[in-house]
Design goal:
Elements lengths: L3 H29 L33 H6 L3 H7 L38 H4 L7 H9 L1 H4 L13 H13 L3
């Protein structure tokens, strides 16, 4: 039933499949790899897009006056935005989760929750969680405090950040 001819056929089929795979890989590299190789300088295909907003159109969102947005913020909407934070943070005083509790976080000292181990990078960002510091941190935690343990990617919408900060300002403040 199982003789040397069967074993030879199995090994030959495996070698043939490996050969087809390697040749396919070689052909794909020739077709899809950039001319300069992939040494990090040109490793992807760039799609040219016409500038949608004219000159400096992408920077208009960066120039928003946060104080004005915060003044018009709605804490009720901020409570809904807080649902993204509930997995790691609690609002009760002293009830730490994966992250520290956020009771009275607005204008609280950075790294001041007892019983929570903060990263050194976070303590170096600011002395007090002012609305402006919270805005920068909530926009891009890893960019604002490189080395922070917080794994959240951030809130890109300035109104969401302002609403959240307004809501947190009503909790324990």
């Amino acid at each position: 039933m199982f003789d040397t001819m069967t074993l030879t056929k199995i090994i030959g089929a495996g070698c043939g499949a490996l050969l087809v795979f390697l040749l396919g890989n070689w052909a794909a590299e020739l077709i899809y790899e950039p001319a300069g190789g992939h040494e990090g300088e040109n490793a992807s295909y760039v799609i040219e897009v016409a500038d949608a907003g004219g000159e400096g159109g992408g920077e208009a969102a960066e120039e928003v006056d946060f104080a004005a947005v915060l003044a018009a913020a709605d804490p009720g909407k901020g409570e809904r935005v807080f649902s993204k934070c509930k997995a790691c943070h609690k609002l009760e005083d002293g009830a730490n989760g994966t992250g520290p509790h956020l009771y009275g976080v607005v204008d609280r000292e950075v790294g001041s929750v007892p019983g929570f181990s903060y990263s050194g990078a976070l303590k170096a960002v600011a002395d007090v969680w002012s609305p402006e510091h919270l805005d920068g941190f909530l926009k891009n935690p890893k960019g604002y405090a490189p080395g922070t343990k917080m794994g959240f990617s951030g809130l890109k919408d300035v109104e969401d950040r302002a609403n959240l900060i307004a809501y947190l300002g009503t909790i324990g403040g």
